[in-house]
Every structure is written in C-alpha cells, then in structure tokens.
Amino acid sequence: MDTLETRELRYFLAVAEELHIGRAAERLGMAQPPLSRAIQQLERRLGVLLLVRNRRGVALTEAGEVLHQEARVVVDAATAAARRTRRAAAGNDGSRTRLVLAVKAGDSHDLLRRLLGAYSAEPDAAEVEILPSGTCEQGEMLRDGRADAALMHTPFNSLTGFDSEELLTEGQIAVLPARHPLAARATLTLAEVSDIPDLPLARWARDGVHPPGPGPAITDQTQLAQLIALGRTVAIHPDSARAWLWTEHAAVPLIDGPPVVTHIAWPAHSRSLALAALVRTATRCTDAPRPDPSA
C-alpha cells in the first residue's frame, strides 16, 4: 500500500531520531508496546524492514534512512499547512493578516528596521511578527510553518527549496571583549580568530546539534553577548551585528572572511499576496540609497 498516514510517520520519526523505542514512546507521550506495534504495522504495509532491533535500541536500515528523510518533509509540510491556514483564517474576523518573519537574532538590524518601516506604510500591510532564531534555524522555521518568510544569510544558510531575493552584501567581523589585546587591531584573519588561546570560538547549534570544540555552546544572543563581555568567547558575525554590541565589546573586520549575502526567502509554493508585498518592499528599500549618517 502506497498511502501513509501522518500519525504513523510522526511515530516513525520519533523512533528514527531517538534510535530507541522507549525514549521515542516517552517523547510521544505514549506507552512502548503500542508504539512498537505501530512501527511493525508500518513495516508490514510497506513490505520492508525499517529498523534493526538490538540491545542498545534500534538502527535504521537503508530503507529506514530513506523513509526518515521523506517523512520529515511530509510531516513538516503538514505542520506548515496547519499553521499557515490558522494564520490566514485569523484575518477573516476583520483583524489584519499576520505574517511571521524569521530573523537571526542580532543580524541585519538596520535592514530589518528599514524594511519594517517601509512595509508598515504600505496600504493593507499585514501585521509582521518577528521570530528570532539561532544560526541556521530559519530554514527549518520556513519548512515547518513557524515562519512565512525569513532573512537568511549565505554561505551560512541553504536556500535550497525556497524562493528568494538578494538584499544585501556585507563583510564579517570578529566580536571580542573590548579589553582583549586583539581588540585594538585594525583587522584580523579567520585563522587568527580561530586560534586565540584564551578566547575559544562560540558554538551555535546547527540542526539542533552544537559542533565540537572548546568554546561555549550558545543558545541565545543574550548569552553570547554576556560571555563575550566577560572575556569567555569570541564570535564571528556579519558587519551588521555592530547594532547589538555593548560597550564591553569590540568589532574587528575580518580581511579574509567571505562576503555574507542577506536574502529574503519564502516557501516556493506560496501564493500569499501579503507575503508578495513584503518581498517587493524588501527589494525596494535595499535598492534605495541610504542616508549618510555623517550628514
């Protein structure tokens, strides 16, 4: 049988991600025996073995790996459909349509300020809710429907599967404690920043996992700002991150950091008129000349 239910795909995803029936059952809030039966029934319906059971838990077969990837897409799409449908229906009671824009906390501050100001002046502008995210979380927020659009940054974010418009290109900076000796440098290199004995690089999670390394595992922007101010870590950001720096911070340009390109991205299948208007406004306000702050 080729038809699969969203419920059984959610069950399978929990097992595939936990690699343990007991932990998956606890995560789902159900007993272990019915979860085991549901997975066995799924295997019988597909006519394939998805899991190999062992004393430690389970392992995915090659077929299980394929279903793991495919099921994530399907479940995210179903979740996104439900979330966006509810947001669309919210405007039927006479209230304004609402759009959720995911942004990496601390980046693109000036661009975001100009975008929101210009869009709010548009006739019939939707209400825009800002959803802060960590590194590389914007894509996941678009896929599962938590966000309708996102400001994403290449080469750090992948735009695969999304439509997008390029908005801004900028350099990168190292954010250090203001009292650190390297804070007085005019420029730094990536190698120098990656090899400061007393300042290990901060580690943001990617796909929910912090990369290995001696630096602190960062969960939010406030934590990062405080640890830099305390002299415990250094971070690399686009130049626009200067907007959130404290007096205890210093920003030093990276001469060999690849340019960071900010895009506004959205699901490729979107037909939202409010979203289309937001994208048009974003491209217009980045095309317009910026005021000279020294004038």
UniProtKB/TrEMBL annotation:
InterPro entries: LysR_HTH_N, LysR_subst-bd, WH-like_DNA-bd_sf, WH_DNA-bd_sf. Keywords: DNA-binding, Transcription, Transcription regulation. Pfam families: HTH_1, LysR_substrate. Residues 4-61 form the HTH lysR-type domain. Signal peptide: none annotated. PROSITE patterns: HTH_LYSR (PS50931). PANTHER family: HCA OPERON TRANSCRIPTIONAL ACTIVATOR HCAR, TRANSCRIPTIONAL DUAL REGULATOR HCAR-RELATED. Belongs to the LysR transcriptional regulatory family. This is LysR family transcriptional regulator. It comes from Streptomyces bohaiensis.
